[in-house]
Amino acid sequence: MSLPTNTQIAPGRQDSVPVVLEVDDVVQTFQVASSHPFRKATVSAVAGVSLTVERGEIVAVVGETGSGKSTLARAILGAEPAKKGRIVLHRRGGATKKNGQAKEEGGRGIQMVFQDPYAALDPRWSVLRSVAEPLRTAGMTSSSERRRRVAEILNLVGLSAARFADRSPRELSGGQAQRVAIARALVSNPDLVLLDEPVTALDVSVQAQIITLLYTLKGRLGLTAILIAHDLAVVRTLADRTAIMYLGRLCELAPTDDVFHRPLHPYTAALLTAIPPKIGEPARERIHLKGEQPSPLNPPSGCRFRTRCPIAQDKCAAEVPEWREIEPGHHVACHFPLVDSVAVAVAER
Using one digit for the tens of pLDDT, what is the confidence trace for 56-96? Predict the structure, then answer.
């Protein structure tokens, strides 16, 4: 599988928009217990995913539960090294980290914001200590410098250092705890931030506040991030490009506006009909997918979406669809992409 954008990047290369992360044909599998007492089954969680992230952009990875998006994030972080493929982080100043080594040097290369902020924060530590920990690990020995930097980043995420620095997580609301988690991820100025469902565990009223905060940080800091999400409204607000993932493989990758206004994969088209339109936009006719998502223990042959696809044909079972660029910057893995009115009409039946 070829990368969607140019990946021949030498350390220290100077481009107008340099590539920060390369993910090339990454495969992740797990061994699990099976019905046979002496054998284990293999879960195909990620099956040959390739993408790049440029500095200053947010790339969203979207899919149903079990699509492999969080597994991909952990492979990029290095928490669970991929079984196959190449993951390269291009650091500022020309340094390069490969296949999970970005956790070195105090994690300054990649930081992560988790779904549940309370589970991500040590309940025994104060806000000051939690946010300052990446700085201490990275070698900032001056406590006064750490305190100054923590105060700066807390103010940036909308928390007064004077009021919140000495509080423990149990003294914070869900939104405040997630702001602390975001501050901790940003305090060491990482090259890449992984946002794993950052608003899912929050109340709806608080979700809007955190989304607004992330949007503001994107503009002020030039935030470079991968956003793992299933809420397409969040993706539409924050992401520059969007990758659609199904059962361990990418179906589509394009600028977010193109994904929402001109989906080329039947799965993407079906996802978009499930969300309410914006004010002033016409409602899409709902596309109902048949059946359930297959098990990653036994994925379908050929195209993994074919068992639920309304336009699947014999070729879809026999051949894995090629990852190709149908339009400039718009990539899709489908034998019969929705590039004409006839195909769209079939998909909408």
Answer: 999 999 998 889 999 999 999 988 899 999 999 998 766 56
Evaluate whether 332 touches 257 at the Cβ level (below 8 Å).
Answer: no
How far is it, in rounded angstroms, from Cα 216 to Cα 147? 23
Q: How far is CA 68 from CA 46, 112, 134, 248, in A?
A: 6, 17, 28, 5
The distance in angstroms from the start CA to the end CA of the chain is 31
pLDDT for the residue numbered 347: 47
The residues facing 336 across adjacent strands are none
Query: Residues 271-298: what's their mean pLDDT?
Result: 80
Integer Rg of the chain from CA: 21
C-alpha–C-alpha distance, residues 95 and 10, integer Å: 10
> Distance (Å, rounded) from C-alpha 69 to C-alpha 63?
7
Supply the pLDDT for residue 226.
97
Report how far residue 112's alpha carbon sits from residue 71's, in angstroms, rounded to the nearest whole number.
13
Q: What is the DSSP annotation of 166-199?
A: T--GGGS-HHHHHHHHHHHHHTT--SEEEEESTT
